[in-house]
Specification:
336 residues, TIM Barrel, eight-stranded parallel barrel, two-stranded antiparallel ribbon
Length: 336
């Protein structure tokens, strides 16, 4: 089973202008290419206050770096229920054109509060996800009309994508409905930054079972995850220097009750989440320690690791160090 690695980057900083951050990340992408990383990923968030991390429009930032790298470009993830799928069909097709067919559309449901802000009833999120995915694939395949419960579209999308049938759609989510959606309508299952290892292992197994039931080869399945990753020469150095930045990510999800233990119980927010979790949620340590953790996930069925090596306002030199150490000491173990 082959394994691939991508960089999941925080494209918004409260301390550095976006144009400078994009320049930094183009240079980072070039370094990642040399070490064998295959892709770069941007997540979506619609913040209402100063908050580093994901961006309101990941397709825009990916288009800004597309000409400066040969890496594949992916959204990790686009919050599909709050998008007009016709608009997304056009934007994704154009990014696929800009990148010469290197775009992957990762999609997820998002938080109910965000849906309410956009006037989307949260109880319609699942059906909107399913219908929007069908709509995207039909429009990218050149069909002229779609009629559904939520969306009705007439007329083709032009220009269409470079990739036949459109960009692959990687589907996120931790419940059974999500992995069923991935198997039936998508091209991969995608585990989020905050998902516990036990969730990932369970969903990977479910995904392959569902593919097998459809007569598809489960061994060729793509199971992808995001993991917050901070690497230094030693475990002690990584924990000492990385705690501040990794904790920001953990606390962001923890405030929403999304950092959970192996039984699915939310870890109490006042808890020091950095000390409470291990590689079930984050990779922090030496290259040797990170390699051991990656092997553990590979055994559980993961085939694609998007390593979130940038966190908020982290200095560029720390991000570059993680990429270099991973590239020199971890990725070579998975080269074919």
């Amino acid at each position: 089973m082959s394994v691939q690695f991508g960089l999941a980057l925080d494209f918004w900083s409260t301390s550095k202008p976006l144009d400078r951050l994009l320049d930094d990340y183009v240079g980072l992408a070039k370094r990642a290419e040399q070490y064998g990383f295959d892709s770069v990923w941007a997540g979506e968030n619609r913040p209402r206050s100063a908050e580093s991390g994901h961006v309101p429009s990941p397709l825009l930032v990916l288009s800004a770096i597309a000409r400066g790298t040969r890496l594949r470009l992916g959204t990790g993830v686009t919050l599909l229920p709050v998008w007009n799928p016709l608009r997304l069909a056009y934007d994704a097709a154009l990014l696929d054109q800009i990148s010469a067919g290197r775009f992957i559309l990762g999609v997820g449901v998002g938080h109910p509060a965000l849906m309410k802000r956009y006037g989307i009833p949260p109880d319609e999120a699942a059906s909107r996800m399913d219908e929007a995915m069908v709509l995207l694939k039909k429009l990218w395949a050149g069909e002229e009309e779609f009629q559904g419960k939520h969306f009705n579209v007439k007329g083709k999308v032009y220009p269409g994508p470079v990739q036949p049938g459109g960009p692959p759609i990687w589907v996120g989510g931790k419940i059974r409905r999500s992995v069923e959606r991935a198997a039936k309508l998508g091209d991969a299952w995608y585990g989020a930054t905050q998902f516990h290892f036990e969730v990932i292992k369970r969903q990977a197994h479910r995904y392959r079972e569902l593919l097998l039931a459809q007569g598809r080869d489960p061994e060729s399945a793509t199971v992808a995850i995001n993991r917050t990753t901070f690497v230094a020469e030693t475990d002690e150095q990584a924990r000492r220097e990385g705690k501040k930045y990794v904790s920001e990510v953990l606390n962001f999800y923890g405030r929403m009750g999304l950092i959970q233990d192996s039984r699915g119980n939310a870890i109490d927010p006042p808890t020091d989440l950095f000390e409470a979790v291990g590689d079930e949620i984050v990779f922090v340590g030496s290259p040797e320690t990170c390699l051991e953790s990656i092997r553990k996930y590979q055994k559980a069925g993961v085939t694609h690791f998007n390593l979130r090596v940038s966190m908020g306002n982290m200095p560029l030199e720390l991000i570059e160090r993680s990429v270099t150490l991973l590239g020199q000491h971890v990725l070579p173990h998975f080269s074919s």
